[in-house]
Amino acid sequence: MSVTAPVAKRSATSPLFIPADLSDVIDHAWQLTAQIPGYLLENEAKFLGFLAAVAPRDGAIVEIGSYRGRSTVMLAKVAAHYGLGPVVAIDPHNSPILLNPDGSNRFSSYDDFLQNIRLAGVADHVEPHLAYSTEISPAWRRPIRLLWIDGDHSLGGVKADIDGFLPHLVPFGVVAMHDALSNFAGPIRVFVEEMLRSDQFGPAGFVHSIAWAQFRPADGAAFRGQRAKLAKRAAKLIPLVEEGKELRGFKKMRFKLTRSRIPSFPLSHQAWAAQLDPTTTP
């Protein structure tokens, strides 16, 4: 697919711009994304594609946790189509799922990652870093428009990702975290305690297991009521996952019931745009 004209630049006083061909671009990107092994679901991947296209133009797309490139391809395919710069993909490619039974790490997902982004035709639109996020963040100086976190799901891991890169997120940019509605302590706690309860953020929500929030330091307080309602429901998951153990029996049932009461369904592009539009307030 050839690159079209860049997405129109937006400011705090202009409405969110949705490219006319966005649905087709995302559908095409999903066809390539779906061929890559990984844990990102279709509605989650398409949401990331939407964010790649419509988040504020100023800044990079930073991905923490690439594995074999499933989300990388979606983000890079959409960003490349609209001329929005490369995806910065940060991952040491030594996930625990690659460890041998003896605890050694003789395998890596890096070769698969490179092959997958090459086969998808986006290798020239990805800036890979074979490293931990904490090795990259101290020297990071570039503004970020979309921060996608899908790395270490422990509380310490997610906090390190946020602390290292959130200071560079531009106003009206978006931070999104995977597996916030799965059995991991880090994403849900950081989302509730540092985003939903902070006036630095405006609109927020879930798409399946992705938690997302828009950075709006100037008017985030206006969204306090919306965030509080979501936080009230989402916070009930924290005691069920903070131990970091596999859920069983009654506790597993409670987790599923609690999770079912949190709105996490995908919306139309127009509905997402209405939430992220810099010109709107509650």
Q: How would you explain this protein's 3D organization?
A:
With 282 residues, the chain is an alpha/beta fold. The protein has one domain: Vaccinia Virus protein VP39 (Rossmann fold, 3-Layer(aba) Sandwich). It is built from 11 helices and 7 strands. A 7-stranded mixed beta sheet has the order 3-2-1-4-5-7-6, sandwiched between helices. Helix 7 packs antiparallel against helix 8. The radius of gyration is 18 Å and the shape is globular.
Q: What is the alpha-carbon Rg in Å?
A: 18 Å
The stretches of 5 or more residues where confidence is low (pLDDT under 50) are 1-5, 98-105
The CATH superfamily label reads Vaccinia Virus protein VP39
Number of strands: 7
In short:
The chain is of the alpha/beta class.
Overview features:
Rossmann fold, 282 residues, single chain, 7-stranded mixed sheet, 7 strands, alpha/beta, 11 helices
Helices and strands in order:
Layout (H helix, E strand, L loop, with lengths): L21 H12 L8 H13 L5 E5 L5 H12 L5 E4 L19 H10 L6 E4 L3 H4 L7 E6 L5 H11 L3 E9 L7 H12 L4 E7 L2 E6 L8 H11 L3 H4 L7 H12 L8 H8 L6
Parallel strand pairs: 1-2, 1-4, 2-3, 4-5
Antiparallel strand pairs: 5-7, 6-7
Helix pairs in contact: 1-2, 1-3, 2-3, 6-7, 7-8
